[in-house]
Amino acid sequence: MRFAVAALLALHGLIHLLGFLKPWKFATVSQLSGRTLVPLSEPAARLVGVVWLGTALLLVAAAGLRWLDREPWWIPAAVGLVLSQALIVLQWSDAKAGTVANVLLLVPVVVGFATSRFHAESEVHVRALLARAPAEAAPILGPSDVAPLPPPVRRWLEASGAIGRPRARTVRLAQRGEMRTSADAAFMHTEAIQYFTVDTPGFVWMADVAMHGVPVVARDSYVEGHGRMFIRAAGLVTVADGTGEKFDQGTLLRFLGEIIWFPSAAVAPYISWEPIDDGSALARISDHGVTASAVFAFDAQGRLTSLAAKRYFNGETLEDWVIPITEWKTIRGIAMPTRGSAVWKLAKGDLEYYRWEILDVETNPSASVGKAREQDPTDWAPRAGSGKASSQVGRRRELLEPRIERLEELVAETGPFLVVPPSSTRISASASS
Protein backbone atom coordinates (compact mmCIF):
# COMPACT_ATOMS: atom_id res chain seq x y z
CA MET A 1 0.00 0.00 0.00
CA ARG A 2 2.81 2.43 0.87
CA PHE A 3 4.52 1.98 -2.47
CA ALA A 4 1.23 2.18 -4.37
CA VAL A 5 0.46 5.54 -2.73
CA ALA A 6 3.98 6.76 -3.47
CA ALA A 7 3.69 5.71 -7.12
CA LEU A 8 0.31 7.40 -7.55
CA LEU A 9 1.63 10.58 -5.95
CA ALA A 10 4.65 10.60 -8.25
CA LEU A 11 2.60 9.95 -11.39
CA HIS A 12 0.01 12.55 -10.40
CA GLY A 13 2.75 15.06 -9.73
CA LEU A 14 4.51 14.45 -13.04
CA ILE A 15 1.25 14.97 -14.96
CA HIS A 16 1.00 18.40 -13.34
CA LEU A 17 4.16 19.41 -15.20
CA LEU A 18 2.06 19.66 -18.37
CA GLY A 19 0.29 22.64 -16.84
CA PHE A 20 3.69 24.34 -16.55
CA LEU A 21 5.16 23.36 -19.91
CA LYS A 22 2.29 24.64 -22.08
CA PRO A 23 1.99 28.30 -20.93
CA TRP A 24 5.77 28.64 -20.82
CA LYS A 25 5.95 27.10 -24.31
CA PHE A 26 8.63 24.61 -23.32
CA ALA A 27 6.61 21.93 -25.11
CA THR A 28 3.61 21.67 -27.37
CA VAL A 29 0.82 19.93 -25.52
CA SER A 30 -1.92 19.54 -28.10
CA GLN A 31 -4.19 17.69 -25.66
CA LEU A 32 -4.57 20.85 -23.57
CA SER A 33 -6.71 23.67 -24.87
CA GLY A 34 -5.52 26.12 -22.25
CA ARG A 35 -9.10 27.24 -21.54
CA THR A 36 -9.81 28.52 -18.02
CA LEU A 37 -12.95 29.42 -16.10
CA VAL A 38 -11.88 33.06 -16.22
CA PRO A 39 -9.84 34.61 -19.02
CA LEU A 40 -6.13 34.96 -18.20
CA SER A 41 -3.54 37.20 -19.76
CA GLU A 42 -0.29 35.58 -20.90
CA PRO A 43 1.62 36.72 -17.78
CA ALA A 44 -1.20 35.45 -15.58
CA ALA A 45 -1.24 32.14 -17.45
CA ARG A 46 2.50 31.80 -16.89
CA LEU A 47 2.00 32.53 -13.20
CA VAL A 48 -0.60 29.77 -13.05
CA GLY A 49 1.93 27.56 -14.83
CA VAL A 50 4.39 28.19 -12.01
CA VAL A 51 1.73 27.07 -9.54
CA TRP A 52 1.32 23.88 -11.57
CA LEU A 53 5.08 23.37 -11.29
CA GLY A 54 5.07 24.01 -7.54
CA THR A 55 2.21 21.56 -7.09
CA ALA A 56 4.08 18.94 -9.10
CA LEU A 57 7.14 19.37 -6.90
CA LEU A 58 5.06 19.05 -3.73
CA LEU A 59 3.42 15.84 -4.91
CA VAL A 60 6.71 14.31 -6.10
CA ALA A 61 8.36 15.27 -2.79
CA ALA A 62 5.49 13.66 -0.91
CA ALA A 63 5.94 10.55 -3.06
CA GLY A 64 9.59 10.34 -2.11
CA LEU A 65 8.84 10.74 1.58
CA ARG A 66 6.11 8.12 1.42
CA TRP A 67 8.40 5.71 -0.42
CA LEU A 68 11.00 6.18 2.33
CA ASP A 69 8.28 5.80 4.98
CA ARG A 70 8.89 9.23 6.50
CA GLU A 71 6.01 10.28 8.71
CA PRO A 72 5.66 13.94 7.53
CA TRP A 73 4.91 12.81 3.95
CA TRP A 74 1.26 13.73 4.32
CA ILE A 75 2.04 17.45 4.82
CA PRO A 76 3.37 18.23 1.29
CA ALA A 77 0.80 15.78 -0.06
CA ALA A 78 -2.09 17.64 1.60
CA VAL A 79 -0.87 21.04 0.38
CA GLY A 80 -0.31 19.60 -3.08
CA LEU A 81 -3.81 18.13 -3.26
CA VAL A 82 -5.42 21.43 -2.25
CA LEU A 83 -3.46 23.34 -4.90
CA SER A 84 -4.07 20.60 -7.44
CA GLN A 85 -7.84 20.71 -7.02
CA ALA A 86 -7.87 24.51 -7.20
CA LEU A 87 -5.94 24.36 -10.47
CA ILE A 88 -8.22 21.61 -11.78
CA VAL A 89 -11.28 23.75 -11.09
CA LEU A 90 -9.63 26.68 -12.82
CA GLN A 91 -8.87 24.61 -15.92
CA TRP A 92 -11.73 22.15 -15.58
CA SER A 93 -12.19 21.31 -19.25
CA ASP A 94 -8.59 20.13 -19.54
CA ALA A 95 -7.88 18.78 -16.05
CA LYS A 96 -11.12 17.44 -14.56
CA ALA A 97 -9.88 13.82 -14.67
CA GLY A 98 -7.30 14.78 -12.03
CA THR A 99 -10.11 15.03 -9.48
CA VAL A 100 -10.27 11.22 -9.40
CA ALA A 101 -6.61 10.98 -8.40
CA ASN A 102 -7.07 13.69 -5.77
CA VAL A 103 -9.99 11.83 -4.21
CA LEU A 104 -8.06 8.55 -4.21
CA LEU A 105 -5.06 10.22 -2.57
CA LEU A 106 -7.15 12.08 -0.02
CA VAL A 107 -7.85 8.86 1.90
CA PRO A 108 -4.20 7.93 2.64
CA VAL A 109 -3.41 11.57 3.37
CA VAL A 110 -6.14 11.70 6.03
CA VAL A 111 -4.87 8.41 7.45
CA GLY A 112 -1.33 9.76 7.44
CA PHE A 113 -2.46 12.82 9.37
CA ALA A 114 -4.39 10.72 11.88
CA THR A 115 -1.54 8.29 12.55
CA SER A 116 0.91 11.18 12.86
CA ARG A 117 -1.38 12.81 15.42
CA PHE A 118 -1.59 9.53 17.35
CA HIS A 119 2.20 9.31 17.40
CA ALA A 120 2.43 12.89 18.64
CA GLU A 121 -0.03 12.11 21.44
CA SER A 122 2.03 9.06 22.37
CA GLU A 123 5.18 11.17 22.54
CA VAL A 124 3.44 13.48 24.98
CA HIS A 125 2.78 10.44 27.18
CA VAL A 126 6.44 9.43 26.89
CA ARG A 127 7.69 12.88 27.90
CA ALA A 128 5.36 12.89 30.89
CA LEU A 129 6.64 9.45 31.88
CA LEU A 130 10.32 10.39 31.56
CA ALA A 131 9.76 13.62 33.49
CA ARG A 132 9.18 11.46 36.59
CA ALA A 133 12.67 9.96 36.41
CA PRO A 134 15.36 11.36 38.76
CA ALA A 135 17.74 13.80 37.09
CA GLU A 136 20.89 12.78 38.98
CA ALA A 137 23.30 10.18 37.65
CA ALA A 138 22.37 6.55 38.21
CA PRO A 139 24.36 4.61 40.84
CA ILE A 140 26.61 1.75 39.81
CA LEU A 141 25.26 -1.78 40.27
CA GLY A 142 27.75 -3.52 42.53
CA PRO A 143 28.34 -7.11 43.70
CA SER A 144 26.86 -6.29 47.11
CA ASP A 145 23.58 -5.26 45.42
CA VAL A 146 23.09 -8.70 43.87
CA ALA A 147 24.46 -10.77 46.76
CA PRO A 148 21.03 -11.19 48.49
CA LEU A 149 19.36 -12.50 45.32
CA PRO A 150 18.60 -16.21 44.79
CA PRO A 151 21.53 -18.00 43.09
CA PRO A 152 19.92 -18.34 39.62
CA VAL A 153 18.97 -14.64 39.61
CA ARG A 154 22.43 -13.66 40.78
CA ARG A 155 24.03 -15.75 38.02
CA TRP A 156 21.77 -14.05 35.50
CA LEU A 157 22.91 -10.57 36.52
CA GLU A 158 26.55 -11.64 36.60
CA ALA A 159 26.31 -13.21 33.13
CA SER A 160 24.45 -10.20 31.71
CA GLY A 161 27.35 -7.82 32.31
CA ALA A 162 25.16 -5.39 34.27
CA ILE A 163 27.39 -5.44 37.38
CA GLY A 164 29.82 -2.54 37.36
CA ARG A 165 27.58 -0.45 35.09
CA PRO A 166 25.14 2.33 35.96
CA ARG A 167 21.71 1.07 36.90
CA ALA A 168 18.94 1.70 34.44
CA ARG A 169 16.78 4.67 35.35
CA THR A 170 15.20 5.15 31.95
CA VAL A 171 15.28 2.79 29.00
CA ARG A 172 14.52 3.11 25.30
CA LEU A 173 13.88 -0.09 23.36
CA ALA A 174 13.25 -0.78 19.68
CA GLN A 175 11.67 -4.01 18.51
CA ARG A 176 9.93 -5.55 15.55
CA GLY A 177 7.85 -8.65 15.23
CA GLU A 178 4.71 -10.34 14.02
CA MET A 179 1.35 -10.17 15.75
CA ARG A 180 -1.97 -11.95 15.31
CA THR A 181 -5.31 -11.93 17.07
CA SER A 182 -6.29 -15.60 16.78
CA ALA A 183 -4.73 -18.98 16.09
CA ASP A 184 -6.05 -19.10 12.52
CA ALA A 185 -5.26 -15.46 11.68
CA ALA A 186 -2.27 -14.35 9.63
CA PHE A 187 0.63 -12.67 11.38
CA MET A 188 0.89 -8.89 10.89
CA HIS A 189 4.20 -7.04 10.73
CA THR A 190 4.80 -4.87 13.80
CA GLU A 191 7.37 -2.23 14.69
CA ALA A 192 7.52 -0.67 18.14
CA ILE A 193 9.42 1.76 20.32
CA GLN A 194 9.12 1.55 24.09
CA TYR A 195 10.24 3.75 26.97
CA PHE A 196 10.59 2.71 30.61
CA THR A 197 11.22 4.35 33.94
CA VAL A 198 12.79 2.11 36.56
CA ASP A 199 13.01 3.99 39.89
CA THR A 200 9.24 3.81 39.82
CA PRO A 201 7.89 1.19 37.40
CA GLY A 202 6.37 2.63 34.25
CA PHE A 203 6.42 2.31 30.48
CA VAL A 204 4.87 3.53 27.25
CA TRP A 205 4.90 1.16 24.26
CA MET A 206 4.14 2.64 20.83
CA ALA A 207 3.53 0.26 17.94
CA ASP A 208 2.66 0.38 14.26
CA VAL A 209 0.95 -2.70 12.85
CA ALA A 210 0.22 -3.42 9.19
CA MET A 211 -3.21 -5.09 9.12
CA HIS A 212 -4.15 -6.15 5.59
CA GLY A 213 -2.95 -2.84 4.18
CA VAL A 214 -4.61 -0.77 6.91
CA PRO A 215 -2.19 0.89 9.35
CA VAL A 216 -3.03 0.24 12.99
CA VAL A 217 -1.43 2.30 15.76
CA ALA A 218 -1.31 1.12 19.35
CA ARG A 219 -0.17 2.41 22.72
CA ASP A 220 0.21 0.23 25.80
CA SER A 221 1.20 1.94 29.03
CA TYR A 222 1.59 1.62 32.78
CA VAL A 223 1.95 4.83 34.78
CA GLU A 224 1.47 5.34 38.52
CA GLY A 225 -0.49 2.16 39.07
CA HIS A 226 -2.72 2.41 36.00
CA GLY A 227 -2.50 0.46 32.76
CA ARG A 228 -4.12 1.20 29.45
CA MET A 229 -4.18 -0.44 26.03
CA PHE A 230 -5.32 1.97 23.30
CA ILE A 231 -5.58 0.91 19.64
CA ARG A 232 -6.83 2.78 16.58
CA ALA A 233 -7.27 1.53 13.04
CA ALA A 234 -5.97 4.02 10.46
CA GLY A 235 -5.41 6.37 13.38
CA LEU A 236 -9.12 7.20 13.21
CA VAL A 237 -11.27 4.35 14.52
CA THR A 238 -10.83 3.22 18.13
CA VAL A 239 -10.87 -0.57 18.22
CA ALA A 240 -9.66 -1.03 21.81
CA ASP A 241 -9.36 1.15 24.88
CA GLY A 242 -8.77 -1.10 27.86
CA THR A 243 -8.48 0.21 31.41
CA GLY A 244 -9.28 -1.01 34.90
CA GLU A 245 -7.83 -3.30 37.57
CA LYS A 246 -7.22 -6.22 35.22
CA PHE A 247 -5.30 -4.02 32.81
CA ASP A 248 -3.39 -2.52 35.74
CA GLN A 249 -2.27 -6.00 36.79
CA GLY A 250 -1.53 -7.07 33.22
CA THR A 251 0.62 -4.06 32.39
CA LEU A 252 2.50 -4.25 35.69
CA LEU A 253 3.17 -7.91 34.93
CA ARG A 254 4.40 -6.89 31.51
CA PHE A 255 6.84 -4.45 33.11
CA LEU A 256 8.11 -7.22 35.39
CA GLY A 257 8.66 -9.53 32.44
CA GLU A 258 10.47 -6.88 30.43
CA ILE A 259 13.19 -6.22 33.00
CA ILE A 260 14.98 -8.99 31.11
CA TRP A 261 16.22 -6.16 28.86
CA PHE A 262 17.51 -4.00 31.72
CA PRO A 263 18.49 -6.56 34.37
CA SER A 264 19.69 -4.02 36.96
CA ALA A 265 15.98 -3.48 37.72
CA ALA A 266 16.00 -6.88 39.42
CA VAL A 267 17.37 -5.22 42.58
CA ALA A 268 14.64 -2.54 42.66
CA PRO A 269 12.91 -2.33 46.07
CA TYR A 270 9.47 -2.99 44.59
CA ILE A 271 10.59 -6.44 43.32
CA SER A 272 11.16 -9.38 45.66
CA TRP A 273 12.59 -12.79 44.76
CA GLU A 274 11.96 -16.27 46.13
CA PRO A 275 14.12 -19.21 45.04
CA ILE A 276 12.34 -22.22 43.58
CA ASP A 277 15.27 -24.41 42.55
CA ASP A 278 18.74 -24.00 41.08
CA GLY A 279 17.31 -22.92 37.75
CA SER A 280 14.29 -20.77 38.57
CA ALA A 281 12.94 -18.12 40.92
CA LEU A 282 9.64 -16.42 41.61
CA ALA A 283 9.59 -12.62 41.24
CA ARG A 284 6.91 -10.49 42.90
CA ILE A 285 6.29 -6.86 42.03
CA SER A 286 4.12 -4.37 43.91
CA ASP A 287 3.28 -0.80 42.95
CA HIS A 288 0.42 1.52 43.93
CA GLY A 289 -1.52 -1.38 45.42
CA VAL A 290 -1.18 -3.53 42.29
CA THR A 291 0.74 -6.79 42.54
CA ALA A 292 1.87 -9.44 40.09
CA SER A 293 4.31 -12.31 40.00
CA ALA A 294 6.09 -14.48 37.47
CA VAL A 295 8.49 -17.40 37.35
CA PHE A 296 11.85 -16.69 35.73
CA ALA A 297 13.73 -19.77 34.45
CA PHE A 298 17.46 -19.79 33.65
CA ASP A 299 19.99 -22.16 32.13
CA ALA A 300 23.37 -23.11 33.57
CA GLN A 301 25.02 -20.19 31.75
CA GLY A 302 22.80 -17.66 33.50
CA ARG A 303 20.67 -16.93 30.46
CA LEU A 304 16.94 -16.41 30.87
CA THR A 305 15.13 -19.19 29.03
CA SER A 306 11.48 -18.58 29.84
CA LEU A 307 9.00 -16.54 31.81
CA ALA A 308 5.69 -17.87 33.14
CA ALA A 309 2.76 -16.18 34.86
CA LYS A 310 -0.98 -15.81 35.18
CA ARG A 311 -2.46 -12.89 33.27
CA TYR A 312 -5.89 -11.72 32.22
CA PHE A 313 -6.71 -12.83 28.69
CA ASN A 314 -8.61 -10.09 26.83
CA GLY A 315 -9.07 -8.40 30.20
CA GLU A 316 -11.42 -11.17 31.33
CA THR A 317 -10.16 -14.56 32.60
CA LEU A 318 -6.85 -15.43 34.22
CA GLU A 319 -4.89 -17.72 31.93
CA ASP A 320 -1.36 -19.11 31.72
CA TRP A 321 0.98 -16.75 29.90
CA VAL A 322 4.39 -17.89 28.72
CA ILE A 323 7.42 -16.51 26.88
CA PRO A 324 9.82 -18.90 25.13
CA ILE A 325 13.20 -17.31 24.35
CA THR A 326 15.17 -18.57 21.37
CA GLU A 327 18.07 -16.17 20.87
CA TRP A 328 20.44 -13.98 22.89
CA LYS A 329 22.85 -11.22 21.93
CA THR A 330 24.97 -8.58 23.60
CA ILE A 331 23.61 -5.08 23.01
CA ARG A 332 25.48 -2.08 24.36
CA GLY A 333 27.46 -4.34 26.66
CA ILE A 334 24.48 -6.18 28.18
CA ALA A 335 23.74 -9.80 27.27
CA MET A 336 19.99 -10.23 26.85
CA PRO A 337 17.26 -12.20 25.09
CA THR A 338 16.69 -10.80 21.61
CA ARG A 339 14.21 -13.19 20.04
CA GLY A 340 11.24 -15.14 21.31
CA SER A 341 7.48 -15.28 21.31
CA ALA A 342 4.44 -14.70 23.49
CA VAL A 343 2.00 -17.55 24.06
CA TRP A 344 -1.34 -17.97 25.80
CA LYS A 345 -1.96 -21.47 27.16
CA LEU A 346 -5.70 -21.71 26.66
CA ALA A 347 -8.12 -24.59 27.17
CA LYS A 348 -8.81 -24.67 23.43
CA GLY A 349 -5.10 -24.76 22.60
CA ASP A 350 -1.98 -22.63 22.58
CA LEU A 351 -2.17 -19.17 21.01
CA GLU A 352 1.20 -17.84 19.93
CA TYR A 353 0.14 -14.27 19.32
CA TYR A 354 3.42 -12.38 19.10
CA ARG A 355 6.88 -13.17 17.75
CA TRP A 356 9.36 -10.51 18.79
CA GLU A 357 12.88 -9.44 17.97
CA ILE A 358 14.80 -6.83 19.96
CA LEU A 359 16.75 -4.40 17.78
CA ASP A 360 18.25 -2.03 20.34
CA VAL A 361 18.10 -1.29 24.05
CA GLU A 362 19.59 1.91 25.45
CA THR A 363 19.66 2.64 29.17
CA ASN A 364 19.52 6.23 30.43
CA PRO A 365 19.24 7.63 26.85
CA SER A 366 19.86 11.27 26.12
CA ALA A 367 18.32 11.67 22.62
CA SER A 368 14.91 13.29 22.31
CA VAL A 369 11.71 11.30 21.87
CA GLY A 370 10.84 13.00 18.60
CA LYS A 371 14.18 12.26 16.98
CA ALA A 372 13.92 8.63 17.97
CA ARG A 373 10.58 8.25 16.20
CA GLU A 374 11.98 9.74 13.01
CA GLN A 375 14.39 6.82 12.71
CA ASP A 376 13.50 3.52 11.15
CA PRO A 377 13.53 1.02 14.04
CA THR A 378 14.88 -1.65 11.71
CA ASP A 379 18.08 0.40 11.46
CA TRP A 380 18.66 0.05 15.19
CA ALA A 381 19.76 -3.56 15.01
CA PRO A 382 23.38 -4.10 16.07
CA ARG A 383 25.61 -4.96 13.15
CA ALA A 384 28.55 -7.30 13.48
CA GLY A 385 31.98 -5.87 12.72
CA SER A 386 35.60 -5.93 13.73
CA GLY A 387 34.97 -5.24 17.39
CA LYS A 388 32.55 -2.40 16.66
CA ALA A 389 28.95 -2.11 15.62
CA SER A 390 26.74 0.71 14.54
CA SER A 391 23.18 1.57 15.31
CA GLN A 392 20.74 4.32 14.51
CA VAL A 393 18.90 5.91 17.41
CA GLY A 394 18.01 9.50 16.57
CA ARG A 395 21.28 9.64 14.66
CA ARG A 396 23.46 6.76 13.59
CA ARG A 397 26.27 6.22 16.01
CA GLU A 398 28.62 3.46 17.02
CA LEU A 399 27.60 1.01 19.66
CA LEU A 400 29.89 -0.02 22.46
CA GLU A 401 30.88 -3.62 22.76
CA PRO A 402 28.84 -4.87 19.83
CA ARG A 403 29.68 -8.57 20.09
CA ILE A 404 26.82 -10.54 18.71
CA GLU A 405 26.58 -14.02 20.13
CA ARG A 406 24.10 -16.37 18.51
CA LEU A 407 23.48 -19.12 21.03
CA GLU A 408 21.71 -22.45 20.87
CA GLU A 409 17.93 -22.15 20.56
CA LEU A 410 15.91 -22.77 23.68
CA VAL A 411 12.23 -23.19 23.97
CA ALA A 412 10.79 -20.46 26.13
CA GLU A 413 7.72 -18.37 25.98
CA THR A 414 7.03 -14.67 26.18
CA GLY A 415 3.95 -12.63 25.80
CA PRO A 416 0.91 -11.97 27.82
CA PHE A 417 0.97 -15.61 28.91
CA LEU A 418 3.95 -17.87 29.25
CA VAL A 419 4.54 -21.51 28.56
CA VAL A 420 3.41 -23.77 31.36
CA PRO A 421 6.42 -24.01 33.66
CA PRO A 422 7.86 -27.25 35.01
CA SER A 423 6.01 -28.95 37.82
CA SER A 424 8.56 -27.57 40.27
CA THR A 425 7.69 -23.99 39.46
CA ARG A 426 4.85 -21.95 40.89
CA ILE A 427 2.81 -19.36 39.08
CA SER A 428 0.76 -16.65 40.75
CA ALA A 429 -0.58 -13.21 40.14
CA SER A 430 -3.00 -10.93 41.88
CA ALA A 431 -4.43 -7.44 41.61
CA SER A 432 -6.00 -5.08 44.05
CA SER A 433 -7.52 -1.67 43.67
The order of strands across the largest sheet is 6-5-4-3-2-1-13-12-11-10-9-8-7
The biggest beta sheet is recorded as: 13 strands, antiparallel
Task: Determine the mean pLDDT.
Answer: 84
Share of residues in helices: 25-40%
The total count of strands amounts to 15
Question: If helices are DSSP runs of H or I spanning 4 or more residues, what is the number of helices?
Answer: 10
If you compute it from the alpha carbons, what radius of gyration comes out, rounded to the nearest whole angstrom?
Answer: 26 Å
Q: What count of structural domains?
A: 2
Tell me the span between the first and last alpha carbons: 44 Å
- Uncertain residue ranges: 371-433
The amount of beta strand, in percent, is 25-35%
Order of helices and strands: HHHHHHHHEEEEEEHEEEEEEEHEE
Helix- and strand-based class?
A: alpha+beta
> Based on CA inertia axes, which overall geometry fits?
elongated
Describe the protein's topology:
Blueprint: H1 2-16, H2 18-21, H3 42-67, H4 74-90, H5 92-95, H6 98-130, H7 143-146, H8 151-160, E1 170-179, E2 188-197, E3 202-211, E4 214-223, E5 226-233, E6 237-242, H9 245-257, E7 271-277, E8 280-287, E9 290-298, E10 304-313, E11 317-331, E12 334-346, E13 349-363, H10 369-374, E14 389-393, E15 395-399
Antiparallel strand pairs: 1-2, 1-13, 2-3, 3-4, 4-5, 5-6, 7-8, 8-9, 9-10, 10-11, 11-12, 12-13, 14-15
